């Protein structure tokens, strides 16, 4: 299946609606699982219904619809205001067969409804594609997910879409870390024009700067216990880029191997004792030549005076790789002698002091920051967060410790 264009009107079985960028599976063409993390009202249900309806144009397709309960599948995914029956024009709408718990299109395509409360109900049936809704609300998410995937064995290109408001549960973190998973994120604001007037403003008045806002409205995976970076500090950090900056650096956290973790690439500038995060160009699945080329292009684009790269994974070879990628900017190699959380503590303090500004929306980066210091570290290597820590530390180094007195 080819990528689908977003941000324009689509002729979706007679649909009269348009898509936001986060509501179509764009990006990596060989994805196996598409995860859409969104705030309340961000349009997650619409995206899932749009995708399944689009695929149902092909004759005799078989789909699985999985929700927290059968009631949720019918009332939200099928018959809800953004559900499968609401999108097509009247003449092309599928019919719901309550007795068989399935949705049937006129061309023979069928979507079967399943409850996440009964993982064993997914044993036996087989499908071309599946849509799983509110994954984080399932009682046994990994048991349901494994059975569902074992049933995705029809056709040449079986795929899974997962839509959910995120929660910091291990099952979600493991899902996001899997190979072949692409992730989109969207806050409630992205779909504000389709919501009741005043809804978003009222909720922001109540919850602005809290973890509840970050999770339920911004759609971020928010860590709690032991986390160094607080949602309220990250929310307060958003601001505009100054007209001029004293210095700009590109920080790089190289991956341990090609095709493994992402290469963290974060651009930060400094002015008047504050650090300004300009962009996050982190990229996964790249060869050393690939990520080095991205770093070189990024340094030229932002007019960086220096590239700061961690050398723990490759030593001086990191400098050679960057040079082969076309880097003409000065390179500063840094060595991590302390753990990630320990290195991040002074930077977290700068956020608390309001001395770091995010000049844009960086949801993936903010998720990794909020995972630093938590019980399991979020389940993934915090490549973006680590790169940011190196950049901010380089531009705003912590004061050196003074002389100490030891009592004898």
Task: Record the SSE blueprint.
Blueprint: E1 33-38, H1 44-55, E2 62-67, H2 70-78, E3 95-97, E4 102-104, E5 110-115, E6 129-133, H3 141-150, E7 159-164, H4 170-177, E8 181-186, H5 199-207, H6 211-217, H7 231-236, E9 247-253, E10 264-271, E11 274-280, H8 288-302, E12 306-310, H9 317-324, E13 331-334, H10 340-352, E14 356-358, H11 363-371, H12 383-395
Parallel strand pairs: 1-7, 1-8, 2-5, 2-6, 6-7, 9-12, 11-14, 12-13
Antiparallel strand pairs: 3-4, 4-5, 9-10, 10-11
Helix pairs in contact: 5-6, 8-9, 10-12
Beta content comes to: 15-25%
What is the class of the largest domain in the CATH system?
Answer: Alpha Beta
Could you spell the SSE succession in H and E letters?
EHEHEEEEHEHEHHHEEEHEHEHEHH
Helix content: 25-40%
Total helices: the number is: 12
Largest sheet: 8 strands, mixed
Q: Compute the number of strand runs.
A: 14
Task: Quickly give the CATH architecture of the largest domain.
Answer: 3-Layer(aba) Sandwich
Please state the structural category. Answer: alpha/beta
Instruction: Give the CA-CA distance, first to last residue.
Output: 73 Å
Low-pLDDT runs = 1-16, 401-405
Task: Provide the spatial order of strands within the biggest beta sheet.
Answer: 3-4-5-2-6-7-1-8
Oligomeric state: single chain
Shape: elongated
Keywords: Viral release from host cell
Domain Terminase large subunit gp17-like C-terminal: 251-392
InterPro entries: P-loop_NTPase, Terminase_6C
Protein name: Terminase large subunit gp17-like C-terminal domain-containing protein
